[in-house]
UniProtKB/TrEMBL annotation:
Pfam families assigned: GerE (PF00196), Response_reg (PF00072)
UniProt KW keywords: DNA-binding, Phosphoprotein, Transcription, Transcription regulation
Positions carrying 4-aspartylphosphate: D71
Domain Response regulatory, residue spans: 20-136
PROSITE patterns per record: HTH_LUXR_1, HTH_LUXR_2, RESPONSE_REGULATORY
Organism the protein comes from: Streptomyces atrovirens
Protein name: Response regulator
Coiled-coil portions: none
């Protein structure tokens, strides 16, 4: 009886301090592996899973979560796009980016999107738990190579007197570009974004004009270079 009382007290304490996590990755096997890493910790619990960025946003609306762990490369909405939406939707939600890409461009975009940490999948078993706890303390978590990249980028800009370029596309244009590059029709894009077909076509025309491109193929190549879709 005493043992049971002790166990109940321990379970109550765990529940009070549990960090509730939303996990988004388009590969079910990756999600399973990441979930195993997180759920074996007494203070971490995956309470919602998503297969793409749009689903992650929907899950954040319906689940009480403290932390979102987002893969960067996902269909419909990337983790970067989802992070921007989630930051606006739930200002108190902490966000970590999980990626296989040791890529400076992704790193800088992730930080701009509101992510508090950037974890490589290759060392997730070593870094992810610490990154989750750091995020909840509002402390940034970057792997050593990312810190080096940030310092080098800053020093290069100082040396050359360069300013960070302004974002060329609006968030909505970026959403349309990604869906065009993924092969969706104007009608499908309109349904996914809850806008009219006419508005989608106007965005496509604006994209071609802004980027100096001619057709869907060139838009797709640009989207790959910008990291919106995988090659």
């Amino acid at each position: 009886m005493n043992h049971q009382d002790t166990q109940d007290t321990h379970d109550d304490r765990r529940t009070d301090t549990t960090i509730r996590i939303l996990l988004a990755d388009d590969h079910a096997l990756v999600r399973r592996g990441v979930r195993l890493i997180l759920d074996r910790e007494p203070d971490l619990e995956v309470v919602a899973e998503a297969g793409d960025g749009a689903e992650a946003i929907a899950m954040a609306r319906t689940h009480d979560v403290d932390l979102a762990v987002l893969d960067i490369a996902m269909p419909r909405l990337t983790g970067l796009q989802a992070a921007r939406e989630l930051t606006a939707l739930r200002p108190g939600l902490r966000i970590l980016m999980l990626t296989m890409h040791d890529n400076e461009q992704y790193l800088f975009q992730a930080l701009k999107a509101g992510a508090g940490g950037y974890v490589l999948k290759s060392v997730a078993d070593r870094d992810l738990v610490a990154a989750c706890r750091a995020a909840m303390r509002d402390e940034p978590f970057l792997y050593p190579g990312a810190v080096t990249a940030l310092i080098r980028n800053y020093l290069d800009r100082v040396r050359h007197g360069e300013e960070a370029p302004e974002q060329l596309l609006t968030p909505r244009e970026e959403e349309v570009l990604k869906l065009v590059a993924e092969g969706h029709s104007s009608k499908e894009i309109a349904e996914l974004l809850f806008i009219s077909v006419k508005t989608v076509q106007r965005h496509r025309e604006n994209l071609l004009h802004k980027l100096g491109l001619r057709d869907r193929l060139e838009l797709t190549r640009y989207a790959i270079r910008a990291g919106l879709v995988e090659p």
